[in-house]
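agent: user wants the structure for F-box and wd40 domain protein from Solanum bulbocastanum. delegating to structure tool.
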Amino acid sequence: MEVSTWFCNNSHYYEDSNSEKQSTTSTTYEENTSSNCSIDTFYISPNSYCIATFKTLTPQISNLAIHNNILYAASLNKIVAIDLKTYELIDTFTSSSFGLVKSITFTKTKILTAHQDCKIRIWQFKPSSKKHHHHHLLSTLPKLKDRILRGILPKNYIQIRRHKQKLWIQHTDTVSGLAVNDGLMYSVSWDKTLKIWKMSDFSCLESVLGHVDAINAVVVSQNGVVYTASADGEIKVWRREKNKHSLVTTLRKHKSSVNAMSLNNDGTILFSGGCDEKIVVWEKEEHCVDNYMLSTCLLKGHNGAILCLNYFDGVLISGSSDRSVRIWEKNSINSNNNECGYFCSIVLEGHCKPVKSITAAWDEDENGNNNNNGILSVFSGSLDGEIRVWQDLVHEIFKLVWKRKAAERGKNELSENIENELKVEYVPRTMSYPSYMCVSVLMI
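agent: tool returned. relaying tokens verbatim.
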């Protein structure tokens, strides 16, 4: 893996001789765009950061996830661990027997990965005194012991094809998603099933035939409500009652396959994206049992299938087959421009192929604490084999989040000048660098 770091200084971009220089001045620029965001005039700030891509030796990035300030990037059957403090490679772990990594999630002490070979793997992180750390494979699910014990009884087998049977605890197709909550792990697969696992001993507790087509994603709220999204265009809502998961309702709004979902922090808003190029916003109805979630609006702007979504600290980040990353915010100042108040604040472009996975993290301060008043880094992984790091100052880009939080507390702490700044809808700036990316602070 190549790791390079590029910096901006005084609004000049410095690159190697093989790269085309994009900007050498800090004067005002006005650009045209085909997105739904309005066009404004803005300056390139000297406080902006240029961050290099991580270029893998394999042809695609299938999943990104962050845990304990380590970025985990899945590329084909390998998982790469990168220290976000130094952007140094600290480990690469793999096994010659398993296929494409489809999903990565975490418990406090373990790393869980879903694979194309129909299995789930549990990894243990072992810190080292040296620069490099090690990830040890603990178990492969279902465990061999469970397969032997279950295999004794014929009733534990299910028919998957005319002349082939498998145990019900086994996925029979690609495991496409994982989610963890309250001691339970939820796995979904292209075999149309949702399986529930007990994390204390990694045993499979339950298997539910959830959809009529492949399941692409799963998310779970803190109160245990599970959402599964499928290629059949439906999202199903499940709740655990008496140690069994039952169907609560089915959400129908997408016209084609649903590829990605993300929940807000308290589980009251669900975002879903699909091949119909739209993001649907679902909001919880407390007094309506039949409709657990209602569709409140559609977010339009992408010109390709929505492949990944990530809700992070008040902003929604989306990646698409149109090779762009969009950041969406809730406009609490003036919602007349959009029926539900959400708008696209920034478009990040530069990938050569579809954006398959996105994640985000606050930069840590010197004491190792999340620096919420500092810099937010957005990481995007693409089928072009690149991981791009997008950074900008929270003071400039995420003022609307602060404004909304202040409004919710009933405070009016913003000056007239800042109020005018908050009314600006930030404009997407196309990034066309061949081997690195830049996100500029957008100012009035």
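agent: one observation worth passing along. The chain has four helices and 37 strands.
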